[in-house]
Design a protein that fits this description.
about 220 residues, homodimer, mainly alpha
Chain lengths: ~220, ~220
């Protein structure tokens, strides 16, 4: 029997991969060249494969993947509907920056779990080539037209703000996840509000580094 | 060295699968339930796997898949942009009826080719479960609200008309494919206009059968 927190984590990750698949496929349809379209479609298929791994693992734990994903549908859909990219570059930045923050966040959570879960999570969070692809295309676009960097920097800030607020809402609505958050690291007495703030700070630092790679203010 | 007609056929099929992947993923985002979404995403991933098979085969023949697909991009994109489903049911009908016509058409063409090509084509045209899924969902919807059948019948007729006209345009723009069309079957002297008309008639009959399965007038 797995802990409710493990099922919650695998459920939110599985739905996240399913949505990532859909969004990457939608970005593929905006691709300026056929080669870019094919490359994005390949990444989308890899994201679907991650979804299948998580789904199979949930089933092997005796949990229905659909039931496990359901509690996270409305929060993730709302996040994505609020932040629909207006064009190809915004889609790429969303994938790079959004997946970056999400992955850092999920790794923080999974570090509190059993090693089998942590290994699977680390595996499905491995980048499918999306980050390098996005970095290269965004840098090229900025070189060609430096004006786009202001708009993209603003978009990056909106993504960061919205993700922090959604993550807080999701965690707050799931007692099992919340408890996990508040569970102190091995050898410590309790996880304080200071620890939580420290985690948000670590996520912010990671975000700033990714924006910096693009030469964008965070 | 493969014939230009083989490269053309594999190119149009590869682009067709890439677009099918994108459209199915877009339909997944319209799915009314999480189970339907997951089922459609799985079909999209299977369509991408077909694309990969075709792409790998083109590469093995010494042909760049991107170059092979390029001539068919604008015709297929135009077809899909003209006929964007307005909702979930129209998306399902388009997949069922559109893939049905396309598959009958490609099978007719591939029957004129070497057996290795014909085998690969038959393999990538194998249904990924899309047809049964669509039939079941559309029948349920008609049972629940018989009024939708008029709208869907009209949509099916538009799809058929547009596909025949696009297929004619594509064939007309590619001398290699055109020649193949006009190449007489083994033992006959030439393929006449009557033969072409007969093929369109066979496609129409196949279409009518599929609409009939749904209880829709064609």
């Amino acid at each position: 029997m797995s802990s409710p927190a493990v099922i919650d984590l695998l459920g939110v990750l599985a739905y996240g991969e399913l949505v990532a698949f859909e969004r990457t496929a939608a970005d593929a349809s905006l691709a300026p060249t056929l080669a870019d379209k094919a490359a994005l479609a390949e990444m989308a298929a890899a994201e679907f494969a991650h979804y299948e791994q998580l789904s199979a693992h949930l089933t092997s734990l005796g949990s229905d993947p659909i039931v496990a994903m359901q509690p996270f549908v409305s929060a993730l859909d709302q996040f994505h509907n609020t932040l629909t990219p207006r064009d190809w570059l915004e889609g790429l930045l969303k994938a790079y920056v959004g997946d970056g923050i999400a992955n850092d966040f999920y790794r923080e959570i999974s570090s509190h779990m059993d090693s089998a879960t942590a290994t699977l999570v680390s595996e499905v969070l491995s980048d499918v080539g999306h980050a390098d692809f996005a970095i290269e295309r965004i840098r090229d676009a900025i070189t060609q037209d430096p004006k786009v960097s202001g708009r993209l920097a603003l978009w990056g800030r909106r993504l960061m703000g919205e993700m922090i607020s959604q993550a807080t809402l999701v965690a707050a609505s799931r007692p099992a996840l919340q408890e996990l958050f508040l569970r102190p690291p091995e050898g410590e007495v309790n996880m304080t509000a200071t620890e939580l703030t420290a985690m948000v700070n670590r996520l912010t630092v990671g975000h700033a580094k990714r924006m910096d790679v693009l030469g964008l203010a965070s």
